[in-house]
Design a protein that fits this description.
Blueprint (H helix, E strand, L loop, with lengths): L7 H5 L8 E6 L6 H20 L5 H27 L1 E5 L2 E6 L5 E6 L3 E7 L2 H6 L1 E8 L8 E6 L1 H13 L4
Antiparallel strand pairs: 1-2, 2-3, 3-4, 5-6, 6-7
Helix pairs in contact: 2-3
């Protein structure tokens, strides 16, 4: 299950020479709902305040637009973060890469994952995302909850197939 919007070069830079990528996805688009809603709300509030206050009140009008610009830039930042966050599962490892300016790669060897489960809230069931919970024997749980995973039931089954090596 490879997301076609992810360039092969993006995946290859994290793989070992003999490693094969099985799953490569971005976080679900619904992670952008809150930032987009906040930016739209700020813009609507600014427009309502601009219509309410007379044009002679220049202080209010001048103070509104930086708030709108800041909220739109904040929303665009979240979009950039979403575009650069990936969830990879190879035949050997589970990885999450995050960050726009500073890159962070979290990794757990697949053979160290002792328990795998997924959770789906009502909104996750409606929109098609969930949270994968990985328990491992590694002392530091750097990669425990992976939120906003698209198709979590399909990814869960595919990861179980890799963990239990049902083909061999």
């Amino acid at each position: 299950m490879l997301d076609p919007s992810i360039r092969p070069k993006t995946v290859q830079r994290y793989l070992l020479p003999a490693e094969k990528c099985v799953i490569a996805v971005r976080r679900h688009w619904s992670v952008l709902i809150r930032p987009a809603g906040a930016a739209a709300g700020a813009a609507a509030l600014a427009i309502a305040m601009a219509m309410y206050f007379p044009e002679e009140n220049a202080v209010v009008h001048l103070a509104l637009w930086p708030v709108v610009v800041a909220s739109v830039l904040w929303c665009l930042w979240h979009y950039l973060v979403w575009r650069h966050d990936y969830f990879f599962v190879t035949d050997r490892r589970v990885m999450v890469t995050t960050g726009v300016l500073t890159r962070r790669v979290l990794m757990v060897p697949l053979d160290k994952v002792t328990e795998l489960k997924f959770q789906r809230s009502l909104s996750g069931r409606i929109l098609g995302h969930g949270t994968l919970v990985l328990e491992s024997g590694v002392t530091e749980d750097a990669l425990k909850d992976v939120e906003y995973v698209p198709w979590p039931d399909t990814i869960y089954v595919r990861m179980c197939d890799l963990m239990f090596d049902t083909k061999g």
